[in-house]
Q: What sequence folds into this?
């Protein structure tokens, strides 16, 4: 029963994130007076539907997403309200709206996380005895604000930075103490027992100071998620992570299920309310990560994604004429084929990772 509930939670999470993405396209299409032929929540066979104006609305059997089908977006159309008949700005807004709504959803999830758990501000709460940070003079209460001159707002950015830089490389760390900035050069220290390198400081975050504080750090949270996507792509391209790090729906679902079960195990001695909130916050954390990831990945300039369509529109804006439909169709078809091949690869890669644990 527990696993079934986990699966239902995961499916609803995926469905919500994709539906919000498609609703962004739908809303901006309507605002731009673009004809929407169908807006669907879910995929697969239709279980309910109605028509209002020019648009068919449907609810479909599989709650794993949805779609917004616009007139003239993938085919030629002489309709004055077709996608390809609208201005460059209108089309750009419609294409960008899907990712934008994913970022907005991630922001809303982040507010919930900041309110019910903690704010991931890089204020040090512990200094490891005998570590590099202690030798450099760090103290509890110091707030780290820069790494090698780059501004940071989340403690997890330090971990992310550490994945990109060799552990033997010295890092210039700027921190605030009593309102004054200080900069020291720190090299991570090897822990002989674990074999890992550590800066030697820890942050457990802090409690919220109110709604404005939560909104501020929710923006930083979305920024961190976007930064993570870009850094992850960089690490994948440069070979710093293997293909096994790639995850599709199967891998993500498996990971979500594992983390949910771990959350339940950790709170099994707690009250039912604490257990519920812990699991809920675990799902919300994943939803925030996935929503920001979907928004960012869709902005990549790859044909068949929103970013690819945006690229074609920008080329049209610069050239003063649209890319010929036949050439756009060929490039898009190649993009679709490559995405399908990647999807198949990731699917079997996920299966292999799940089977072999």
A:
């Amino acid at each position: 029963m527990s696993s079934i509930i986990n699966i239902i939670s995961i499916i609803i999470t995926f469905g919500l994130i994709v539906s919000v993405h498609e609703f962004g396209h739908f809303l901006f299409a309507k605002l731009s007076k673009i004809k929407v032929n169908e807006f669907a929540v879910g995929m697969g066979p239709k279980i309910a539907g109605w028509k209002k104006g020019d648009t068919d609305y449907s609810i479909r059997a599989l709650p794993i997403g949805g779609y917004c089908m616009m007139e003239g977006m993938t085919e030629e159309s002489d309709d004055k309200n077709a996608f390809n008949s609208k201005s460059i700005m209108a089309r750009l807004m419609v294409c960008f709206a899907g990712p934008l709504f994913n970022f907005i959803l991630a922001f809303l999830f982040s507010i919930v996380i900041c309110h019910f758990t903690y704010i991931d501000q890089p204020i040090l709460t512990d200094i490891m005895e005998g570590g590099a940070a202690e030798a450099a003079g760090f103290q509890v209460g110091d707030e780290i604000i820069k790494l090698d001159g780059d501004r940071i707002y989340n403690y997890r950015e330090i971990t992310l930075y550490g994945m990109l830089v060799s552990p033997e490389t010295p890092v210039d760390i700027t921190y605030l103490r009593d309102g004054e900035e200080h900069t020291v050069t720190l090299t991570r220290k090897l822990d002989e027992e674990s074999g890992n390198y550590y800066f030697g400081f820890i942050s457990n975050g802090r409690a919220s100071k109110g709604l404005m504080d939560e909104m501020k750090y929710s923006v930083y949270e979305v920024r961190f998620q976007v930064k993570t996507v870009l850094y992850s792509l960089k690490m994948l391209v440069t070979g710093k992570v293997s293909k096994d790090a790639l995850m599709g729906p199967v891998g993500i679902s498996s990971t979500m299920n594992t983390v949910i079960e771990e959350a339940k195990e950790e709170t099994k001695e707690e009250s039912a309310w604490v257990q519920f909130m812990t699991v809920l916050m675990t799902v919300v954390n994943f939803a925030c990560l996935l929503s920001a990831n979907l928004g960012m990945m869709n902005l990549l300039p790859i044909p068949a994604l929103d970013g690819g369509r945006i690229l074609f529109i920008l080329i049209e804006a610069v050239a003063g004429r649209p890319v010929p439909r036949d050439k756009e169709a060929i490039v898009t078809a190649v993009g679709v084929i490559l995405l399908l091949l990647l999807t198949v690869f990731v699917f079997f890669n996920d299966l292999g990772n799940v089977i072999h644990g």
Q: What stands out?
A: The first strand starts at residue 36 and ends at 52. The CA atoms of residues 143 and 179 lie 10 Å apart. Strands lie at 36-52, 55-70, 126-127, 143-147, 150-151, 171-177, 180-186, 189-190, 197-198, 201-202. DSSP finds nine helices and ten strands in the chain.
